[in-house]
Amino acid sequence: MKAAVLRWAEPKDMKAVLGLIQELADFEKEPEAVVISEDDLLEHAFGGQPKFQCFVAEKQGQVVGMALFYPRYSTWKGPTFHLEDLIVTQKERGTGLGKALYTKFIAYAEAQGVRRIEWVVLDWNTHAVNFYENSGADVLEDWRTVQMDQAAMRRYLAKENENI
Question: How far, CA to CA in Å, does 155 sit from each of 33, 81, 145, 160?
Answer without folding.
Answer: 20, 30, 20, 9
